[in-house]
């Protein structure tokens, strides 16, 4: 998965007192587009599928503070500390430039769509970009207090914003969700979404509702989307998924009773049982879904899951 590439070189401890130096990396977004250096056929991103941009390799790198900081109009007071991580083997501090009116003068920069991060290399930079985009989107959505409408301010200690009028405290949005590898008679259920413009096979998935455990979410999503009851719901791994501000929990589970699929056609256009040897594996190295499908296909689960 994409976060596994970091080898513990990602430090998300918040440091509101940090000051950017010339080599600090700056992330500046205009809506969903990131200001960056880019090499490759950028036009191919328009029709890129996850993990592949029409067979064209596109590389992005982040601008430094020294590149963007104009001595006449310093950006220092408009930076928000994000996190530290190693890029190209060197630990860097990363900052979000929070300025809607910023107009860079550096001519060798361009804007790339941040949500195409799976199709751009290297993936450690892609992780930094999409995580920063999640925080950028949260800051943008919480400029005003949802309780009283007053302008919010950054907290001086924690990664949150607060309302100076009513003292409402707002933390980054993280939505829990589940992914379920449903197994019956030695087969796993792979699905395709109905209306998301994404045609790869995936697993049953959805967000956790109020008052549910993650295991209850898995059981509910399975019944709602494919009409199956589950038993032996077993946790596999979790993954942050910043594109939807989510924290995903992956489970494997067995069908309890009849395994006849009843698709929710508003959500899914296909649901098919696959034996391990029939699965065409993908090795993009990004998502929990892909890893779970490959894990089943490689027969790494306990032997009992593969009994026909």
Low-pLDDT runs:
none
Number of helices: 4
**Content of β-strand:** 25-35%
Q: Could you tell me the mean pLDDT? A: 91
Main beta sheet: 6 strands, mixed
CATH level 1 name of the largest domain: Alpha Beta
Number of strands: 17
Task: Report the order of strands and helices.
Answer: EEEEEHEEEHEEEEEEHEEEH
Give the N-terminus to C-terminus distance in angstroms.
Answer: 29 Å
Structural shape: globular
Q: Share of helix among residues?
A: 10-25%
Structural class: alpha+beta
CATH architecture of the largest domain: Alpha-Beta Complex
Radius of gyration, taken over Cα atoms and rounded to an integer in Å: 22 Å
- CATH topology of the largest domain, by name, is Nucleoside Triphosphate Pyrophosphohydrolase
The number of distinct structural domains comes to: 3
